[in-house]
Structure formats: C-alpha cells, structure tokens
Amino acid sequence: MVRVIAGEFKSRKLKTLDGQATRPTSDRLKETLFNLVQSRIAASVFLDCFAGSGGVGIEALSRGAAFVTFVEASPRAVQIIRQNLALLGEAGSARCQILSQKAETGLKSLKRTGRKFDIVFLDPPYADADQYPRVFERLQNCELLNDEALVVAEHSKFLALPAQVMHLERRREVRQGDSVLSLFHFQG
Predict the structure, then answer these.
(1) Which pLDDT tens digit goes with each residue over 98-140?
(2) How far apart are the first and last CA of the chain?
(3) What is the C-alpha to C-alpha distance for residues 117 and 44, in angstroms, rounded to an integer?
(4) DSSP state of 28
(5) Distance, CA of 101 to CA of 148 (rounded, Å)
(6) At residue 79, what are phi and psi to the nearest 5 degrees?
(7) Are 181 and 174 in contact (CB under 8 A)?
(8) Do residues 157 and 140 touch, judged by C-beta distance below 8 A?
(9) What are the Cα distances from residue 25, in Å, to 8, 53, 141, 154, 155?
C-alpha cells in the first residue's frame, strides 16, 4: 500500500497493483517531488502520465491542484485509479479525469480538448526508456504545456536524459537511491 503524504487526503492509504507490473513511486521520492514543486501546485492543472495506481496525481489533487488528468494504458491500473478515487470521494469528480490509453494516444486526445498543463509528471516503466523523448516531443507538438510549465521525469539513475528537447530545458536533477527526478522547464 502507498499513502497520501500531505494535504486534503493526508495519511489515506491507496491501493496498488499486485506483482511487479508497476513500480509505484516511493513515498520518499514522492515527498521529494512535491517539495520541489509545492509552490506551483495550488490551482495548477496537473498531468500524471503513465499513472500506474495514480498515487502521484492523487497527491497533487490532495495538495490543491485544480485539475488532474491520469493517463494509463493498463486496464488493471485504470481500475485501481478508479478505486482509489472512489475511496477518497472523488469518483466522478469534476477535479479529475482518467484516460485509459497509451501515453502518445492520450496526449493526442488531450490536444483535441484544448487543455494545457502547468505540471506534467511522467514515469514510464524504466525498461521503456524510449518513451521519454517521444512524450517530451508529443507534449510540445500537441501544444499541451502552458508557458513556464514544469515537466518532471522520474527515471533510472542509469539513464541520462538530454539536457534539452525542443523548448524543454532540464534545469535540475535530484537523485535518490536508484531513481532520478529530472525537472524540465518549458519556454513556449
């Protein structure tokens, strides 16, 4: 089980998928992530891409994000996100949406809505390292980022992400155990 660290749903436990199919962001790394972005969370529009059980997006919602979109390809994981939102009284909420789609398809769908994001968190399976540059490019090509948006990529310490992808520039890396949070700023 994973827990919500702070905010409206503080200390609430969340369900996760059984087995090794997903790797939930650890509480420690999640706390580091939200310490880094806390000043941007209030009233933000947040995208949790490769959402898994939804723990990061739910943490953003708990800490005051105005709207959270979860993008997840696995039907089992989408069901867990729905269950977690129901546990928190957010099932069917106007504050969030779930797209049961692969990341690139989900981003194309979001383009049609006209929604733009202030913060994007992406955490594909570490074995799918090719997803990072594709998602970085798709976010920009689909015009999904507000000016000054922040894109945070969680990745293995063994993967070096580029310093710049189009208008996304890496400004900071925070290493914790086997994981790294790379923070990219968007200048539209």
Answers:
(1) 999 999 999 999 999 999 999 999 999 888 999 999 999 999 9
(2) 39
(3) 8
(4) H
(5) 26
(6) -65, -40
(7) yes
(8) no
(9) 20, 10, 27, 9, 10
Structural tokens at position 130: 């090719």
Look-up: residue for tokens 């708990």? 62
Strand partners for 97: 69
Question: How far apart are the C-alpha atoms of 67 and 117, rounded to whole Å?
Answer: 9
Taking alpha carbons only, the member of 136, 60, 76 closest to residue 103 is 136
pTM comes to 0.95
The token duo for 176 is 């914790």
> Do the Cβ atoms of 176 and 141 come closer than 8 Å?
no
Distant-in-sequence, close-in-space partners of 33: CB < 8 Å, separation ≥ 6: 25, 56, 121, 152, 154, 181
Burial bucket for residue 5 (CB in 10 Å: 0-12, 13-18, 19+): buried
Strands 96-99 and 2-3: unpaired
CB 117 within 8 A of CB 63: no
Tokens of 152: 């945070």
How is residue 64 written in tokens? 């005051």
